[in-house]
Amino acid sequence: MVLAGVLLSGGCSSGSLGSSQSISVRQTLAYSLLRNPRVGLANFHVSGRRDNATAVDNMRQAERGQRSRRSSYQRAPGGSAYLDNRVLWAMHYLTRSGWSFRVTELAGGSHSGKSRHYEGAAFDVDYINGIKVGWENPHVKGFMRRCRQLGAREVRGPGIPGHRTHVHVEW
Ligand SMILES: [Zn+2]
Asked: Which CATH architecture group holds 23-170?
Protein backbone atom coordinates (compact mmCIF):
# COMPACT_ATOMS: atom_id res chain seq x y z
CA MET A 1 0.00 0.00 0.00
CA VAL A 2 1.34 3.35 -1.02
CA LEU A 3 -0.57 5.02 1.81
CA ALA A 4 0.88 2.82 4.53
CA GLY A 5 4.34 3.08 2.99
CA VAL A 6 4.35 6.86 2.92
CA LEU A 7 2.90 7.19 6.39
CA LEU A 8 5.36 4.71 7.87
CA SER A 9 8.32 6.29 6.11
CA GLY A 10 7.32 9.56 7.74
CA GLY A 11 9.71 8.42 10.39
CA CYS A 12 10.14 9.79 13.84
CA SER A 13 7.34 11.19 15.95
CA SER A 14 9.51 13.97 17.32
CA GLY A 15 12.07 16.38 15.98
CA SER A 16 11.87 17.82 12.49
CA LEU A 17 8.67 16.75 10.84
CA GLY A 18 8.47 16.15 7.14
CA SER A 19 10.92 18.65 5.72
CA SER A 20 9.76 17.28 2.36
CA GLN A 21 7.04 19.32 0.69
CA SER A 22 6.34 16.65 -1.90
CA ILE A 23 2.92 16.89 -3.51
CA SER A 24 2.38 13.12 -3.43
CA VAL A 25 3.10 13.01 0.31
CA ARG A 26 0.69 15.93 0.80
CA GLN A 27 -2.00 14.13 -1.18
CA THR A 28 -1.53 10.93 0.82
CA LEU A 29 -1.67 12.71 4.16
CA ALA A 30 -4.74 14.73 3.12
CA TYR A 31 -6.47 11.58 1.89
CA SER A 32 -5.79 9.92 5.23
CA LEU A 33 -6.80 12.92 7.37
CA LEU A 34 -10.09 13.34 5.48
CA ARG A 35 -10.94 9.77 6.52
CA ASN A 36 -9.54 9.89 10.06
CA PRO A 37 -12.39 9.79 12.60
CA ARG A 38 -10.25 11.69 15.11
CA VAL A 39 -9.98 14.74 12.83
CA GLY A 40 -12.90 17.10 12.29
CA LEU A 41 -12.62 19.67 9.50
CA ALA A 42 -15.01 22.63 9.62
CA ASN A 43 -17.11 23.32 6.53
CA PHE A 44 -17.74 26.91 7.64
CA HIS A 45 -15.85 29.98 8.81
CA VAL A 46 -16.42 31.29 12.32
CA SER A 47 -17.04 34.65 10.62
CA GLY A 48 -20.03 33.15 8.81
CA ARG A 49 -18.53 34.00 5.39
CA ARG A 50 -19.04 31.41 2.69
CA ASP A 51 -16.30 30.58 0.22
CA ASN A 52 -14.25 27.62 -1.00
CA ALA A 53 -11.54 28.08 1.62
CA THR A 54 -12.94 26.31 4.68
CA ALA A 55 -10.80 23.72 6.46
CA VAL A 56 -12.50 20.82 4.69
CA ASP A 57 -12.26 22.60 1.32
CA ASN A 58 -8.54 23.22 1.91
CA MET A 59 -7.94 19.57 2.79
CA ARG A 60 -9.84 18.33 -0.30
CA GLN A 61 -7.79 20.68 -2.49
CA ALA A 62 -4.61 19.21 -0.96
CA GLU A 63 -5.92 15.69 -1.55
CA ARG A 64 -6.26 16.56 -5.25
CA GLY A 65 -2.68 17.85 -5.32
CA GLN A 66 -3.85 21.44 -5.65
CA ARG A 67 -2.94 24.61 -3.82
CA SER A 68 -5.44 25.38 -1.04
CA ARG A 69 -7.62 28.47 -1.40
CA ARG A 70 -7.29 31.49 0.86
CA SER A 71 -10.29 33.59 1.76
CA SER A 72 -10.60 37.11 0.40
CA TYR A 73 -12.61 38.96 3.03
CA GLN A 74 -11.44 41.37 5.76
CA ARG A 75 -7.64 40.92 6.07
CA ALA A 76 -7.47 37.69 4.05
CA PRO A 77 -5.44 38.22 0.84
CA GLY A 78 -7.14 35.78 -1.56
CA GLY A 79 -5.13 33.50 -3.81
CA SER A 80 -3.89 30.13 -2.65
CA ALA A 81 -1.02 28.22 -1.03
CA TYR A 82 0.12 24.64 -0.70
CA LEU A 83 -0.59 23.29 2.77
CA ASP A 84 2.73 22.79 4.56
CA ASN A 85 3.35 19.07 4.99
CA ARG A 86 4.59 19.69 8.54
CA VAL A 87 1.05 20.79 9.46
CA LEU A 88 -0.40 17.59 7.99
CA TRP A 89 2.22 15.35 9.62
CA ALA A 90 1.53 16.99 12.98
CA MET A 91 -2.21 16.35 12.67
CA HIS A 92 -1.46 12.75 11.75
CA TYR A 93 0.86 12.23 14.73
CA LEU A 94 -1.53 13.98 17.13
CA THR A 95 -4.18 11.39 16.29
CA ARG A 96 -1.61 8.61 16.65
CA SER A 97 -0.97 9.95 20.18
CA GLY A 98 -4.68 9.61 20.92
CA TRP A 99 -5.87 13.18 20.41
CA SER A 100 -9.06 14.05 18.60
CA PHE A 101 -9.77 17.60 17.52
CA ARG A 102 -11.66 19.85 15.13
CA VAL A 103 -9.78 22.14 12.75
CA THR A 104 -11.56 25.43 12.07
CA GLU A 105 -9.07 27.05 9.68
CA LEU A 106 -6.09 26.10 7.54
CA ALA A 107 -5.19 28.55 4.74
CA GLY A 108 -8.65 30.16 4.74
CA GLY A 109 -10.30 32.63 7.10
CA SER A 110 -9.18 36.13 8.08
CA HIS A 111 -6.15 36.42 10.36
CA SER A 112 -3.50 39.01 11.18
CA GLY A 113 -1.60 40.59 8.31
CA LYS A 114 1.41 38.25 8.01
CA SER A 115 -0.31 35.17 9.40
CA ARG A 116 1.29 31.81 8.67
CA HIS A 117 -2.21 30.60 7.80
CA TYR A 118 -1.83 32.38 4.45
CA GLU A 119 1.26 30.24 3.72
CA GLY A 120 -0.60 27.05 4.57
CA ALA A 121 1.64 26.66 7.62
CA ALA A 122 -0.84 27.05 10.49
CA PHE A 123 -4.06 25.52 11.78
CA ASP A 124 -6.70 26.48 14.34
CA VAL A 125 -8.53 24.05 16.62
CA ASP A 126 -11.73 24.73 18.57
CA TYR A 127 -12.56 21.30 20.02
CA ILE A 128 -10.08 18.94 21.68
CA ASN A 129 -11.17 15.44 22.72
CA GLY A 130 -14.78 16.45 22.21
CA ILE A 131 -14.65 19.49 24.50
CA LYS A 132 -14.72 23.14 23.42
CA VAL A 133 -11.36 24.90 23.83
CA GLY A 134 -11.33 27.17 26.88
CA TRP A 135 -10.02 27.48 30.41
CA GLU A 136 -12.19 24.62 31.58
CA ASN A 137 -10.97 22.13 28.95
CA PRO A 138 -8.47 19.86 30.77
CA HIS A 139 -6.93 18.65 27.49
CA VAL A 140 -5.74 21.98 26.09
CA LYS A 141 -2.36 22.22 27.85
CA GLY A 142 -1.32 18.69 26.89
CA PHE A 143 -2.42 19.23 23.30
CA MET A 144 -0.39 22.43 23.07
CA ARG A 145 2.66 20.71 24.56
CA ARG A 146 2.40 17.87 22.03
CA CYS A 147 2.22 20.39 19.18
CA ARG A 148 5.46 21.97 20.38
CA GLN A 149 7.08 18.54 20.62
CA LEU A 150 6.05 18.00 17.00
CA GLY A 151 8.04 21.07 16.02
CA ALA A 152 5.46 23.86 15.94
CA ARG A 153 7.35 27.11 16.36
CA GLU A 154 4.38 28.96 17.82
CA VAL A 155 1.40 27.58 19.74
CA ARG A 156 -1.19 29.98 21.24
CA GLY A 157 -4.28 29.23 23.29
CA PRO A 158 -6.46 30.43 26.17
CA GLY A 159 -4.66 33.10 28.16
CA ILE A 160 -3.35 34.84 25.05
CA PRO A 161 -5.55 37.66 23.68
CA GLY A 162 -7.69 36.51 20.78
CA HIS A 163 -7.28 32.81 21.66
CA ARG A 164 -9.87 32.35 24.40
CA THR A 165 -11.77 29.70 22.41
CA HIS A 166 -9.21 28.26 20.00
CA VAL A 167 -5.67 26.97 19.80
CA HIS A 168 -3.44 28.31 17.02
CA VAL A 169 -0.50 26.15 15.85
CA GLU A 170 2.05 27.33 13.30
CA TRP A 171 5.32 26.43 11.62
ZN1 LIG B 1 -4.65 30.67 13.76
From this structure: 2-Layer Sandwich (3.30)
